[in-house]
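Input set for joint prediction.
Command: fold jointly, output tokens.
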Amino acid sequence: MANDPIHQFQIQKLFPIEVGGMDLSFTNSSLFMVLTVAAASAFLIFSTSGRGLVPSRVQSVSEMAYEFVASMLRSSAGTEGMRFFPLVFSLFMFVLVANLLGMFPYFFTVTSHIIVTFALAMLVILTVTIYGLLRHGMKFFHLFAPAGVPPLLLLIVAPIEVVSFLSRPISLSVRLFANMLAGHITLKVFAGFIVSMGAAGIAGAAGAILPLGMTVALTALEFLVAFLQAYVFTVLTCMYLNDALHPSH
Amino acid sequence: MAGDAHTNAEHNTEVHIPESEHGAGFPPFDATTYASQILWLAITFGFFYWIMKNVAVPRIAGILEDREDRIAGDLSEANRLKEETDAAIAAYEQALAEARNKAHGIAQDTRAKLKTDQDARREKAEADLSEKLKEAEAHIAGLKTEALSQIGEIAGETTSALVEQLIGKAPTKTDLTKALKSAMN
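tokens >
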């Protein structure tokens, strides 16, 4: 079981809770959601508690995160998009910290479960749709009929736009989920090779250097992926929010 | 992790391992855990969003805004000081130009005054000199007429003596004067 690469994604009940036949237990996944929120909040709040005019090192990290997300949102959705800043910043920090916490050995990766990433993606898409409809009413559907397209072509383009809109939550959630899942499985598999080759005598132990090197390289890659996927998730969120603000492209 | 949770986990894996060959045991696709995950995600992410919106984001925004204000304030202060410096330099240069003009004026005045003084003195001296010259000329003219009259007398005497020698008889005074006059003219 130690070598089972899927084992790390197992949900384990820590405090079983059942309401009306529904299993709402506090699980290891819930624990790591709490840890993610606690770590991210604590870092952002304590690092900025000095409110230094000249930032300390930790404070400048928080400021960099803030300005990174702010410039992302401003460049794709304009200054109007800044009203969604708390949401976008929360999403970025939550996904980033969850991904990075998952890099610790024996830690659970919250974002390696499709239901979590799908729920986050649905939060984004519902925000876009509801805000877009409230703000623009029926004009929101101009999103599916780009300006300047001949009416005949519109018969083809509109369904494509509808499909692409509907597939957004899926692509958004699957991208993050699959990257985290695949990365952790690959790491686990290569790390497992080291153990099983090491057990196979001298020649095996010498050969185990190869998967060891691979594991080291993959660990670095996974740190990159952890950041990159949080970034991609946030950038796409910003672009979708831009659709809610300016539906007529 | 509590001990009973561990046994629980083992229990879970034991249940799911046979199913995993069919794909249903793959934990991310185990729908029985979805309700719990969604609930806890909603609770934790909702709380996180609340903290970000009400504490972290306003605080970082405040820090950045303060810094921007401070920088803008410092820049405008620097600008103001620069303008003051420029004004001071301009005032200094104006004072310098005024002083230079004044000095120039004083020098010119002095020069003009000196020149008039000198001119007056020179004119006076020249007048004095010309007066003296006239006096001298008058004196010389007096001397000259005196000398000339004496010349006539001497010439008369000489002539009468000469005529007396020549003809043995002194000419008359009227003849002599007539002859002398015609000769001298």
